[in-house]
C-alpha cells in the first residue's frame, strides 16, 4: 500500500527548508517528507560558494532601480525587495531567540553594502539614486561620496593606485549583511529532523508527479545509489528544486506551467584568502552590469564569511552549460522544449543578441583577462593572488518571448502543487516567497495561521517603509538579536 503524507518538499535548498520550518510551526501534526537528489542538503544554489551570499535588500544593486527611458528613477522595486528581506530577517531573529538557529555569526554577518561607479553618466545616476533613497526609511543611513579620501576609508582596495582624473562615486550602507545560506539551510533541516513527523530522503530523486482523482499527488522517486524505485501519496507538493523545478512541473501536467522555459547561465568567481588583501576590504561592492549582461552578472567585490573563514570573491563571470543545475543533465536545455514554449524561446533567442555576445566574450576570457576585469575595481590586483571558483547554475525564466529576471511562484489553481522558478533575489526573499505559497495554496487555513505567523514575523502585513519609527524599531530589534553591529 502506498504511504500517504500531507506534504512533499522536492529539493534540499533554502526554499524547502523555509517552507518546512513554517509548516512545522503552523501544523506540527502534518507529516512532511523532503527529497534531495544529492548526498546532502544545500549543495546546489543554496551552497555558500554557489551564490553571492548577499542579503538582497536593494541597498547596492542598481538593477533594482533602473533608469527609465525619460531619465526618471522609481524606488518602488528597491523598496519592495528591502521590505521582503526584512521579513526574512525577522523570522531568522525569532528562530535565534528560540534556539532553533545557532549563533547568528554561523550564518549572517554585518557587511556594509556599497555601490561603486565610474564615468560621469553613472556618477550622475548614482547621485540621483542616493537623493531619492536617503528619504526612504528602509534606506536610512545611506551615504554618498565622490571624494577618494572618503571612499578610501570605506574600501581601500577600490582607491589604491587608482588613476587620477577619472570621475567616480560610491554609496555605502553600513547595515548590509553577508549571509551563508548553506549554513542556514542545514540548520533549518537539522531542526526539522527533530520532529517525528518529518523525513529527509537524501540521494533520492523524484522522477514523476501524477495527479490523482481525489486531488492528491502520486510521487514516484528513485534511490540514486541503489536505483530502487518508490512512491508515496501527498496532499500537497512543493517543487523547490532550482532549474529542475521546470521539468517536474512540466511533467505534472498543470496548465499553469504552459509557456514557461528556462535559459541556463553558469558563473565563476575569482577568490582570494590572502590575509593581507582580505584585511583591507570589508564590504560588498556592486557596480553596473556590462551592456547586454543579465542582472545576475553585475560585477561585485564581496567579503564572504563561510564556515568561519573570511575571503573575498569577485565576479561572477558568466559561463554556459546546457544543464539546469550544477549537477544536472547535458540535455536539460533540450528536454524542456514543448509546443507551448517553443515560440517564446525562439523569440528570446532572436531578441537577445547582446546577451549572446556577452556570453561569448565571457567564455573567451582567460584567468589573466578576468583578473584584468577585477583591476577595474581593484587596481592593485595580481594574478597570483586569485583562484577561479565555479559558481552555481541559474535557470533564468523565459515567458512571453522575454527573458525574465526574478523569482516566480507557479501554483496550480487548486493549490495542491506549487513550484519556484528564477534566480535573484532568490534566497534572500525565501520567507516572503514561502508565505506567498502558503497564502495561495492554503487559503482556507491561512487566516487561522496568521496569529502564529505574527509571532514569528512581528510586522507581517505592514509596510515598514511607510513609518520611519516602525522601520527603525524593527531593523534595530533584528540587528540586536542577529548581532549585526555596523
Automatic annotation (TrEMBL):
GO molecular function annotations of the record: (S)-2-hydroxyglutarate dehydrogenase activity; L-malate dehydrogenase (quinone) activity
Gene Ontology biological-process annotations: tricarboxylic acid cycle
This enzyme's EC code(s): 1.1.5.4
Pathway: Carbohydrate metabolism; tricarboxylic acid cycle; oxaloacetate from (S)-malate (quinone route): step 1/1
Keywords: FAD, Flavoprotein, Oxidoreductase, Tricarboxylic acid cycle
SUPFAM superfamilies, sorted: FAD/NAD(P)-binding domain
Family: Belongs to the MQO family.
Protein name: Probable malate:quinone oxidoreductase
Species annotation: Microbacterium azadirachtae
